[in-house]
Structures are given as structure tokens and as C-alpha cells.
């Protein structure tokens, strides 16, 4: 069963393991017994392996701060060879 976070108006947040069908209902605070309302937060990503977690973090970071690149990724940085031979100017271009 998943763990949900609720907030008691007096005691603050508390976690509760309960069925998904019962997640929306108010939960009794373990400290004072008052009704606690569900709090929505970031999902727990404990079960992910490191590679997937890094990829998700990088994707999240790049959403508002994309990396600035100086060249098209995947191409070499070598300059295109330039020729001075006038016959090469008559060759077909891609
Ligand atoms: Zn309470």
C-alpha cells in the first residue's frame, strides 16, 4: 500500500500507509485525533536506480535552464576543409 502525507491543523504533517481507495478521505491525526487533510508533494523516487534518477534530474533542470551548446551535438569540432581550387566550385552541392 502507498504512503500518503496528511496535515493536521494543530500538529502538522504526518504520513499514513493506507489503501488508494481511502487516500482522498480525511485521516485521523495520530497525535490529537483531529481530521488531517491530504497534502500533495513530490513523488517518492527511492526505488529508481541511479542512472534513471540522474536522467530525470537532468531533464527537470533543463526544463527552465537548458544547456547552451557551441556546436551541433554529435558532430566533430573539426572545421570543414576549405579548398582554393576553382574547379571545386563547379562541383554539385548537397
Ligand atoms: Zn494533530
From TrEMBL:
Pfam families xref list: Zn_ribbon_8 (PF09723)
Putative regulatory protein FmdB zinc ribbon domain span: 1-41
Highest rank taxon of the organism: Bacteria
Region (Disordered): 57-94
InterPro entries per record: Regulatory_FmdB_Zinc_ribbon (IPR013429)
Name the record gives this protein: Putative regulatory protein FmdB zinc ribbon domain-containing protein
Biased composition (Basic and acidic residues): 57-67
Lineage of the organism: Bacteria, Bacillati, Actinomycetota, Actinomycetes, Pseudonocardiales
Amino acid at each position: 500500500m502507498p504512503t500518503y502525507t496528511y496535515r493536521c491543523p494543530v500538529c502538522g504533517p504526518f504520513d499514513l500507509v493506507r489503501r488508494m481507495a481511502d487516500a482522498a478521505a480525511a485521516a485521523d491525526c495520530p497525535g490529537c485525533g483531529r481530521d488531517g487533510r491530504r497534502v500533495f508533494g513530490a513523488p517518492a523516487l527511492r526505488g529508481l536506480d541511479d542512472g534513471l534518477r540522474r536522467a530525470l534530474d537532468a531533464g527537470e533542470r533543463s526544463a527552465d535552464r537548458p544547456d547552451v551548446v557551441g556546436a551541433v551535438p554529435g558532430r566533430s569540432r573539426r572545421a570543414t576543409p576549405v579548398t582554393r581550387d576553382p574547379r571545386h566550385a563547379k562541383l554539385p552541392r548537397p
